[in-house]
Design brief:
With 342 residues, this protein is mostly helical. 73% of the residues lie in helices and 1% in strands.
């Protein structure tokens, strides 16, 4: 495997890692206002409290790796999608502030304000992620000089809004499966009902998004003719998505969460297959597209980055696993009173 292919694959790993890990805590935020009492909302916050900030490191790492490995793609993508990405950054910042501030004062108005802010930022983030993915799937008006300019309204096409809504429903379902592992009692039964609703919405949007993609973007499946193993990913994606509501019904919540995570990973792989070998597809002329070949850094840069990644990733995976192991188990109402937790 050459270095350009390796870094294309590693970017996929980072994107999938972020979507799986931050996806469930964004999903928790999307479901947050459905909790009826303050104690229940504190349970939801404390279920992600030890891990939410670490999960966002995967997004920072993805951005840094894209900048270093494929600087032309980074420059074109972030300039063309500048407004959505700025809104995304603001949403993630505001979400972090809301998590830290909401329990600082006992005032009901204070907490309600930050609760709404946390929900809004959590829901807006996957909408923007989905819209960005949709625009990359359809392609951007990249010129011969690598520049691409498009108005904000041009980015908010019906397809972009559909994929944004699909991503929101996917993360909401993923968040519900996480909460089924972390809650108990009355709240747990409420989360089961949320999970069923989220599964229904997700299934509908999954079908609509698939049909729209196949009809409007023929190249989305072009690589499957050559890369036959991609059909295995397609089948696994469908089976994993279908197993989520089944596992919830059977109360196999660990299996539901793993199936939800597998669905996300499979979707990221299929996105990569649809793009390959392009990083940014030009709608003006295919020759203007930025690929892994014409958009990469030099071989020594990619080689040094690979060495650094090989040394650093075991530590990242190790401490991430340790955190999840230490904070495993249920979060119970009342255990974070007295200023501890969120």
């Amino acid at each position: 495997m050459d270095l350009q292919v390796l870094w294309f694959a590693l970017l996929g790993v980072l994107l999938a890692g972020y979507a799986v890990l931050d996806g469930f805590d964004l999903g928790v935020g999307t479901l947050y206002l459905l909790a009826r009492r303050d104690e229940q909302r504190r349970v939801l916050l404390n279920s992600i409290g030890p891990v939410w900030d670490g999960n966002e490191v995967w997004l920072v790492t993805f951005g840094g790796a894209l900048f270093a490995a494929f600087p032309r793609a980074y420059a074109t993508t972030f300039s063309a999608l500048y407004t959505p990405f700025m809104l995304l950054i603001l949403a993630l910042i505001f979400r972090a502030v809301a998590i830290e501030f909401r329990s600082r004062r006992p005032s009901r108005a204070w907490r309600t304000t930050w609760d709404v802010a946390f929900f809004a930022a959590s829901a807006l983030s996957p909408l923007l992620f989905g819209a960005a993915i949709a625009n990359l799937m359809r392609g951007l008006p990249v010129r011969a000089d690598g520049e691409a300019q498009i108005a904000l309204l041009g980015l908010l096409s019906p397809y972009a809004l559909l994929v944004g809504a699909f991503t929101l429903s996917l993360f909401a379902l993923h968040g519900a499966t996480w909460l089924l592992l972390k809650t108990e009692g009355e709240l747990h039964e409420d989360v089961r009902r949320w999970a069923w609703t989220a599964a229904g919405v997700f299934s509908t949007l999954y079908l609509l998004t698939t049909i729209f993609t196949l009809v409007a973007i023929p190249r989305a499946t072009a690589n499957l003719a050559e890369l036959r193993w991609g059909w295995v990913v397609v089948v696994l994606n469908v089976l994993a998505a279908g197993n989520v509501p089944r596992a919830v019904y059977l109360r196999r919540y660990g299996q539901a969460f793993v199936s939800s995570a597998a669905t996300i990973v499979a979707l990221v792989v299929l996105f990569g297959l649809a793009q390959w070998p392009n990083l940014v597809t030009s709608t003006l002329d295919p020759a203007f597209s930025i690929t892994i070949r014409n958009g990469s850094s030099t071989a020594p840069t990619l080689r040094n980055m690979a060495i650094i990644a090989a040394m650093g990733m075991p530590f990242v995976l190790g401490y991430t696993g340790l955190i999840y192991w230490v904070f495993r188990g249920k979060v119970r109402e009342g255990e974070h009173r007295g200023g501890h937790g969120y």
